[in-house]
Design brief:
Layout: E1 6-15, E2 23-24, H1 28-34, H2 36-40, E3 43-51, H3 60-63, H4 70-73, H5 81-100, E4 110-118, E5 121-129, E6 139-142, E7 158-159, E8 162-163, H6 167-178, E9 180-189, H7 192-212, H8 222-228, H9 233-240, E10 244-250, E11 254-261, E12 272-275, H10 279-292, E13 295-302, H11 309-327, E14 336-343, E15 346-353, E16 359-362, E17 375-376, E18 379-380, H12 381-395, E19 398-405, H13 410-428
Parallel strand pairs: 2-3, 6-9, 12-13, 16-19
Antiparallel strand pairs: 1-3, 4-5, 5-9, 7-8, 10-11, 11-13, 14-15, 15-19, 17-18
Helix pairs in contact: 5-6, 10-13, 11-12
Length: about 450
Amino acid sequence: MADHQFILSNVACIDTAKSPHPISTGIGFFDHMIDQLNSHAQIGVAVTVTKSSGETSSSSATSNGDKHSFEFVNRYADEDQGVIMGQVGAALGSQLKELLYKDGEESNSRTSRFCCPLDEALVECVLTKSCSTNTEGKLTKFTLPPYGKYPANKGRSKIGTMKTQFVESFFTNLAQSSGMDVSLVKVRGDNGHHVVESAFKAFSRALRNLIDGTDTNNYTSKEFEQIWGEKSVSYTAGLELCREGKLERSTKETSILVHVLMNGLLKGGDSIQVDTGIKTMDDFVAILAKEAKMSVEAKCNGDLYVDDHHTSEDVSIALGQVLNTAFGTKAGLNRMWCATGTYGDAEVEVTMDLSNRPCITHNLSLSSNPNDEEYAGDLSIEMLDHVLESLVMNSKSTVHIVENKAGKTVLETAMATAMAYGAALRMCAAVDPRRAGKTASSKGTLSV
């Protein structure tokens, strides 16, 4: 690509370390997206783009020390962005290939899948690493456009100064030079900014897992056990935090006690004690806790002589609140994960982010269930929907629920959801020692 008008320098992808050089492509939003690899792939990324003919008048911003001015950060917004984003993708892909094939070694083919939940988007990324270093990768699937629904059927043509049509060019070139096959599928998303951000974050998280040799679909591999298993540094560090949350309150409608301990269920099954007076709620919370490997005591004496509303709502609100208390600032935690639960005929996937930006989106067959059921066991279906919302909003999480297959009954679907929710929660709450107590965010905090 030497014949192009742009020169790339200080290109780096450093595993679990920061580069001393900046990300400066001349397209501000593109810089921000590349920076997601720093936060979510834990790869120190750097790249600087300049013009082969020397900088124009915009370079004066650099000499004046104003590297953060709009003019300098977006100095190439009116240039050929397709060339810039394609070159950057190819250059970063070459660097990533060195990480994937350390010392030129060949290894077994591997696949990694990750979904990234934002409040207005969910994108799935699947990465496949070939066993040969000589293989050229390809972008196998790309369904991100349209970027949002404003305007309808067209979406955004630009985000900031970045032209969205060239996102595909970036990933095409990155895939080719890295040797990875890359698939990016928009599961849902009406906000163009968040569709692109979800794609870069999903790619970053899938890449981290690919380098680690782990995957969201495999909890039994040697690599998973080494990083996240019960004998891992992560697991021990999580126990040492002694994370817990407790809430007791009484109103004219309910008297509640909810207590959670993120203790890996060290005391065994007796560590889960749930008695709300609603069997479906009891089972839902117990299954969730078991999959999350946390001890739960949840007791409620509610006005069930009225109906199930106050009891189920207050229990889920309290559970969400104590979970949020237990997680504290979320600094040092893995933060994101996706997990699948199966129960009977039902299969449900939950994608979760301990984001402090509460939002829930789902496609569960609740109002449109094939049997026209009104109840899931002894819990009204409208309250099952409300339970999920109350739990997510009060735990301050972003959660996307995808029903891959409906159960024979809504109760089966509810329990599959509880299983997936608990499994995702366990991994989101896991301590990642590589983060050294820092927050997994390009902002550096989740508190604002």
